Inverse folding.
């Protein structure tokens, strides 16, 4: 009981400070890259921010799958040893330019488009984009028709082919619905960084930067302004939130 | 002769009546009260109040959860007061062996009784996770010693 | 086989479909042939075929009401019955193949109006209402005078419905096999062809089994019409591929579909043998060849081939379009991936998927059989004199 009380007062303290002194790391070691200040929990996200990611493919190491493992761990994605039907939220792809022979390694995931085709085609509105640009599936009203998977130009989405046992409490997932990268929305809402970015930094590659594309002073915006960043399938004019350098 | 017939009728009725009585008491005597009322597990810490009075929660918990569900998913509102995750944090033990569907699980204890099917736990965790490194969920401790405490705005 | 025997036979297929659904939903879709690359499988081939054919089955009624062709008037009620029943069968498959068929109510109550799929839900539901009212007006003597207006509404609606179905594919910008507005008119003309083939088969079979007279005048008119439709589908297919062949970016897809390059041999065989030879050229020959004008067996065979060809066409469009690798990284060769980037996907339909598809067809036929038996959808006689009193035997 004493332990609980201590815990409790610490909890209150933590919550109060988190709201008051926004921007401080909440728990030591959890949020290495504190990007923008965490919004208060009771406020809706706004279009004042747009979350995005910049991937420097020159820093992305061939053969390294730290981001993939971190994503699977974070979101409770288990393999059933059936590659064709297993969930893939993020994957590593190695490419060679047919003209120049240049080889590139990059992580591929939901590109969090400004104009997402998956949202356009979804019959029920389950496929949706938050005000801050994060594209999600509302699994409460997803009927599992898989039309979004037909429409996505990046093959970013997976269908839950099997029963999910013990999902993470902050990443609910279930059989019969479609799912994809959430940009670790549960972390982002508390001022955190997606698990893949954290893992890439922990592996000392630093190939991924996460941040607010609308804040000119954010690391990602500055880097994009300085060195640029390309969209994959830019011809589709989807204005993706995930950008790449070196492709 | 007529009297005998009436007597037979009467005794037959009495036999049937007492048999029915015996049957009904047997039903009562057979099970404990669990056969008639759901045995809802108590929250982990009984000194805490629920986020709304108990009667209100019994009737309308789904409205609160549903409202919060859309707020959280679509708008990123992450107050804890009506979140399903916090229901579970408070009402189910970490590593509880009672899983949703069992009579001993907080949610299914009553839902089984009422015969109301829900699909929340086809996707959501039905117990607090034990090795959760994420800050929001690390606390083993429920959030509401008192309804006035923080977070639950509006 | 008696009437009840027919129902029992078809019912067995419906039960098998329901069993398959339970199996797929209980285990999850990994037990089917589908995967994360080919997300619409064999059930969709059957479902889209039936939905397209449903609209086409309305041809005969449309011709009678909208274009006021008296000879088709007695044939019109069966046309509406068939249209409704084919749509029921198609939608049954579609719904039972959803990841969450238990959420049908969500699909019916929450609409994203930018989604062509959501519009289709409205079009399907509207089709039931409009065609249902149309059938009622035709069969109810007191309402008969309004049947022309209902027929006109149904005609417009069925065109919208097939436009919607075609646009499901036509509006997919990411996939080279789709992404063409021509999908909509092509699906309309496909509906004319498939729907009429099924109509003719049902018409000939039901008149044969109930031993009612069916004259050559009606059948031959429909036969010639069917020939025009089959040729029109072929024309649209040619234009579709010519368009792709002109654009360099689509050459890969055409080589895949027409020549079987890049692992597409299965689809190119189904295209050439199933869709073009069996489904188009041979039926055309059987319809137009001299000397077969009054041969019911030849016509029936042609109709069966058109249906097989239609299913083949759906297979190449739906499965083939997904199997061809999406161009995510233009100008790049994929060296390593864990998600089949740049690779042709293998799909083989599982038994439950096929059973579900067949169950949908069986469901349609059960509705037809019940409708014919219970309601007066079939006129007693369609011999030449009844159909066209001015007809002279030639």
């Amino acid at each position: 009981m004493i332990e609980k009380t201590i815990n409790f007062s610490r909890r209150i303290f933590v919550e109060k400070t988190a709201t008051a002194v926004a921007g401080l790391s909440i728990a030591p070691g959890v949020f290495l890259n504190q990007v923008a200040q965490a919004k208060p929990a009771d406020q809706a996200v706004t279009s004042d921010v747009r979350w995005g990611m910049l991937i420097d493919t020159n820093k992305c190491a061939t053969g390294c799958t730290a981001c993939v493992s971190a994503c699977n761990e974070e979101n409770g994605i288990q393999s059933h040893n059936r590659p064709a039907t297993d969930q893939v939220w993020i994957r590593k792809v190695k490419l060679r330019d047919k003209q120049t022979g240049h080889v590139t390694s990059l992580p591929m995931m939901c590109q969090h488009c400004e104009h997402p085709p998956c949202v356009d085609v979804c019959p029920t509105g389950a496929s949706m984009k938050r005000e801050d640009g994060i594209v999600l599936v509302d699994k409460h009203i997803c009927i599992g028709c898989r039309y979004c998977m037909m429409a996505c130009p990046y093959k970013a989405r997976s269908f839950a082919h099997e029963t999910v046992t013990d999902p993470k409490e902050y990443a609910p997932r279930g059989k019969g619905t479609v799912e994809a990268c959430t940009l670790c929305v549960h972390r982002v809402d508390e001022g955190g960084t997606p698990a893949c970015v954290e893992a890439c930094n922990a592996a000392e590659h630093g190939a991924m930067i996460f941040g607010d594309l609308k804040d000119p002073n954010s690391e990602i915006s500055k880097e994009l302004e300085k060195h640029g960043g390309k969209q994959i399938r830019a011809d589709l004019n989807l204005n993706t939130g995930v950008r790449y350098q070196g492709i | 002769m007529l009297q005998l017939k009436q007597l037979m009728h009467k005794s037959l009725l009495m036999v049937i009546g007492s048999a029915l009585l015996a049957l009904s008491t047997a039903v009562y005597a057979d099970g404990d009260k669990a056969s008639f009322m759901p045995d809802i597990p108590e929250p982990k810490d009984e000194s805490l109040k629920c986020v709304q009075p108990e009667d209100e929660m019994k009737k309308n918990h789904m409205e609160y959860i549903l409202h919060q569900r859309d707020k959280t998913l679509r708008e990123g509102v992450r107050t804890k007061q009506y979140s399903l995750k916090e229901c579970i944090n408070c009402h189910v033990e970490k590593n509880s062996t009672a899983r949703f569907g069992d009579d001993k699980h907080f949610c299914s204890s009553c839902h089984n009784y009422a015969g109301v099917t829900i699909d929340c736990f086809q996707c959501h965790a039905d117990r607090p996770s034990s090795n959760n490194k994420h800050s929001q969920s690390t606390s083993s401790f429920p959030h509401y010693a008192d309804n006035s405490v923080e977070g639950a705005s509006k | 086989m008696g009437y009840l025997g027919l129902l029992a036979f078809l019912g067995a297929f419906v039960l098998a479909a329901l069993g398959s659904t339970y199996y797929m939903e209980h285990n999850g879709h990994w037990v089917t042939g589908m995967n994360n690359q080919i997300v619409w499988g064999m059930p969709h081939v059957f479902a889209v075929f039936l939905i397209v054919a449903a609209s086409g089955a309305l041809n005969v009624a449309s011709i009678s009401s909208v274009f006021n062709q008296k000879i088709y008037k007695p044939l019109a009620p069966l046309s509406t019955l068939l249209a409704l029943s084919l749509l029921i069968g198609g939608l049954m498959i579609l719904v039972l193949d959803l990841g969450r068929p238990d959420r049908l109510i969500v699909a019916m109550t929450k609409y994203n109006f930018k989604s062509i799929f959501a519009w289709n839900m409205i079009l399907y539901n509207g089709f039931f209402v409009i065609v249902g009212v149309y059938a009622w007006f035709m069969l109810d003597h007191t309402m008969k005078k309004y049947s022309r207006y209902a027929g006109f509404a149904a005609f417009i609606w069925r065109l919208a419905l097939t436009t919607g179905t075609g646009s499901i594919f036509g509006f997919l910008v990411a996939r080279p096999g789709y992404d063409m507005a021509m999908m909509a008119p092509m699906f309309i003309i496909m509906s004319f062809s498939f729907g009429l083939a099924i109509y003719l088969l049902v018409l000939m079979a039901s008149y044969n089994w109930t031993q009612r007279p069916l004259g050559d005048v009606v059948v031959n008119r429909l036969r010639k019409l069917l020939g025009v439709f089959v040729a029109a589908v072929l024309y649209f297919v040619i234009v579709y591929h010519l368009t792709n062949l002109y654009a360099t970016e689509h050459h890969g897809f055409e080589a895949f579909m027409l020549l079987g390059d890049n692992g597409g041999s299965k689809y190119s065989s189904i295209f050439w043998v199933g869709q073009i030879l069996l489904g188009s050229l041979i039926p055309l020959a059987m319809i137009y060849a001299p000397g077969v004008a009054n041969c019911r067996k030849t016509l029936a065979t042609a109709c069966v081939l058109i249906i097989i060809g239609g299913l083949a066409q759906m297979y190449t469009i739906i499965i083939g379009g997904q199997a061809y690798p999406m161009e995510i990284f233009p100008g790049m060769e994929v060296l390593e991936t864990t998600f089949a980037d740049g690779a042709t996907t293998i799909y083989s339909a599982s038994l439950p998927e096929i059973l579900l598809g067949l169950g949908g067809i069986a469901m349609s036929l059960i509705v037809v059989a019940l409708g014919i038996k219970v309601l007066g959808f079939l006129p007693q006689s369609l011999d030449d004199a009844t159909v066209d009193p001015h007809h002279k035997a030639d």
